[in-house]
Amino acid sequence: MTPKLILTGFMATGKSSVGPIVARQLGWEFVDVDMIVTARAGKPIAQIFADDGEAHFRQLEREAVVQLTSDRRRCPHCHGPFPEVISTGGGVLVDESNCVALKRVGVIVCLTGRPEVIAARVERSKARRPKLTEGGKPTLARVKELMDERADAYARADVQVDSSDLTVEQLADHVIGAFGVHAARRILPPA
Ligand code: S3P
Question: Comparing C-alpha atoms, which of 90, 37, 39, 91 is closest to residue 66?
């Protein structure tokens, strides 16, 4: 009865890079909440924010979480829950209903990173991140501000893994290790 592995955490902590590697190593399927949202909306996330607003994006995100957490498929080997790595956008845990639904089906591994490292990754990347350009602040200031705002939400995860000083291969090992410990505790609670 292995639960699903839910990968979340602040933007640019490495979720999209490490998620498919973790899934490949476990031999599980990989699914990404943001990909479901963009497919359903028919446009990129930055465009959803610009055209329809953040509230609409969050609604699509909630619907994607409901879809993924209502998965009735069973593992063909053990007949337990269907094994899967679910990667989410960085804001998913802010909505407590998402957190409750995801915890019901899996272990939530939250990636973290030092603000300076995250800001540098954001500056290097071409991805458009509407939550970080909000307010027109310098990237590092905005990263720190949003991390502070979300500290309580990220603390709801089962386990945190700091990606700041790890290669993507090392990060994959840490994520699988942290997941394994928590999954085992859930299956075999302490006597
Ligand atoms: C968001 C993070 C993004 C995406 C959207 C909102 C957030 O995903 O879901 O732009 O609120 O932190 P990544 O964390 O994959 O960049």
Answer: 37
